[in-house]
Design goal:
Elements (H helix, E strand, L loop, with lengths): L1 E7 L2 E6 L10 E10 L2 H9 L1 E2 L2 E2 L4 E2 L3 E9 L11 E4 L2 E2 L5 H4 L10 E2 L12 E5 L3 E3 L6 H4 L2 H14 L6 E5 L3 H12 L4 E6 L2 H8 L4 E5 L5 H8 L5 E6 L4 H5 L1 H4 E9 L11 H6 L3 E4 L7 H9 L9 E6 L3 H10 L6 E5 L3
Parallel strand pairs: 13-14, 13-16, 14-15, 16-17, 17-18, 19-20
Antiparallel strand pairs: 1-2, 1-6, 3-7, 3-11, 3-20, 4-5, 7-8, 8-12, 9-10
Helix pairs in contact: 4-5, 4-11
The chain binds zinc ion (ZN).
The site of zinc ion (ZN) has 6 residues, from helix 4.
Family: Belongs to the zinc-containing alcohol dehydrogenase family.
Protein name: NAD(P)-dependent alcohol dehydrogenase
Pfam families: ADH_N, ADH_zinc_N
């Protein structure tokens, strides 16, 4: 069957690959319907690596997927053919120490779609563990199902923050993950979320949600806007989603005394931090790497209508146009949040 293959840095092709084997014990075969393009897919395309993960052989891209179960392997009881599902792309070793602790996202043995050398899911069919395959409510479309993966990162950030009802949060960086984090923080009980960025089109998109305020840091420093919004006290929770060095250096100024800082964005290189600034407010620092045990919660929020991710889907392109879709993602248009690819059939 055909797949979108990253042959090497800078070179994509749509070509035939061997299809997956039959669904084994505990596995399901899924007809893939929709796959979102993630920043990591784009980065492997443009740079050939992310940190220690280097593309050394052709790799199928894509890890944000929804589809329909078409075959169940022996022992699968909670899914049946015809079920509409989304898939969690990281498969840990269940016997690993990290998995036993519930931290399967940091299991060194985790196999994650489209992270070298593991193939992704931009192909018509995949076989996946049923335990990491989740049924979608009728009210959640395939397109929204493919948004569960990036939303899960926002959910992980909101959970790590330990939000209390009525908290005021700030999100630095209005990329897709910043937007997901802002919406997860709102759904998690924040009274208000202030999103700071310098790209006005992105702020306009996320600012259209009730409960979200935006600040364009080209015009107003984030710290001034947060002080204004909180009577000078600062935000209970600061989610750093830009990965930008100046934003990270400026984190202590955004938080209230005793508040929390959650590091979500990933700087490409090590960046300086204002340790004393963090200490002087006794800020609690949390970090986020992917997610663990949040898919059910994310789907429940979407199914209940409390979280609507549809406005973040900027364009949907057919599988045949996958390479053009990736080239558009590389362009990083100001008003593009999430681009998705739909598979035929
Ligand atoms: Zn992703």
């Amino acid at each position: 069957m055909r797949a979108l293959v990253l042959e090497e840095k800078g070179k994509l092709s749509l070509r035939d690959v061997p299809g997956p084997a039959a669904a084994g014990p505990g596995e399901v075969r899924i007809a893939v319907h929709t796959v979102g393009i993630c920043g990591s897919d784009v980065h492997y395309y443009t740079h050939g690596r992310i940190g220690p993960f280097v593309v050394e052989a052709p790799m199928i891209l894509g890890h944000e997927a929804a589809g329909t179960v078409i075959e169940t392997g022996p022992g699968v009881t909670h899914l049946k053919p015809g079920d509409r599902v989304c898939m969690e792309p990281g498969i840990p070793d269940p016997a690993s120490r990290a998995a036993k602790m519930g931290l399967y996202n940091v299991d060194p043995a985790v196999r994650f779609w489209a992270t070298p050398p593991v193939d992704g899911c931009l192909m018509p069919e995949v076989v996946h563990p049923a335990a990491f395959t989740y049924r979608l409510p009728d009210s959640v479309s395939f397109a929204e199902g493919a948004m569960v993966e990036p939303f899960a990162i926002g959910m992980q950030a909101a959970l790590r923050a330990r939000i209390r009802p009525g908290d005021v949060a700030v999100v630095t960086g209005a990329g897709p993950i910043g937007m997901m984090t802002a919406l997860a923080a709102l759904a998690g009980g924040c009274a208000k979320v202030i999103v700071a960025d310098l790209a006005q089109p992105k702020l306009d998109i996320i600012g259209a949600y009730d409960g979200i305020e935006t600040v364009n840091i080209r015009r107003t420093p984030a710290a001034a806007a947060v002080a204004e919004a909180t009577g000078g006290w600062g935000a209970d929770v600061v989610f750093e989603c830009s990965g930008a060095a100046p934003a990270i250096l400026g984190l202590p100024a955004l938080a209230c005394p005793g508040g929390a800082v959650v590091l979500v964005g990933m700087p490409v290189d090590p960046v300086p931090m204002d340790i004393v600034g963090l200490q002087a407010k006794e800020l609690r620092i949390e970090t986020v790497f992917r997610y663990a045990n949040v898919y059910d919660r994310a789907i429940a929020l979407m199914g209940s209508g409390k979280v609507d991710l549809k406005p973040l889907i900027s364009a949907t392109l057919p599988f045949e146009d996958s390479i053009a879709a990736f080239d558009r993602a590389v362009e990083a248009r100001d008003a593009d949040v999430k681009l998705q690819i739909t598979l035929p059939g």
